[in-house]
Amino acid sequence: xxxxxxxxxxxxxxxxxxxxxxxxxxxxxxxxxxxxxxxxxxxxxxxxxxxxxxxxxxxxxxxxxxxxxxxxxxxxxxxxxxxxxxxxxxxxxxxxxxxxxxxxxxxxxxxxxxxxxxxxxxxxxxxxxxxxxxxxxxxxxxxxxxxxxxxxxxxxxxxxxxxxxxxxxxxxxxxxxxxxxxxxxxxxxxxxxxx
Length: 195
Prior knowledge:
single chain; mainly beta; 6-stranded antiparallel beta sheet; 4-stranded antiparallel beta sheet
């Protein structure tokens, strides 16, 4: 079951679902979703002449990513074909009986802006800001203003509470993240890590 605005408001009031800061609930809470705003920090991948980035080498991934913080009153320009990591301004806490789906807003989709490549879920138990995988599929640069509504979350109620929700007990890599986070896939078991 997907939560309606009434259900979302009840969950927020009860405190088991957390979205903060939720500065304008009347604007941000939609009929079956909550709009999240864009943060100021971005991770840009450097253009480089390397054969590949290997998922098992975190050093390589961090080596080719630069952090950019957009000054107050300025925009981040996303050029055609670019891919950057951004973040939501809001921090969320998803209870063990819900899963959140990260979606783009249709107004930005109509400008060819995509907000996630594959990471469209916030698992039960997830806490933190949400990293956005931003791409411009269009032919013209698009200005992204920090604090603009960039994405939306919908919430689906699980048939039962997750027995082992996302979090420290599971060794979840991105729990309590602040700002955009580069891939930590090198910590996965298949690459010699413990997760």
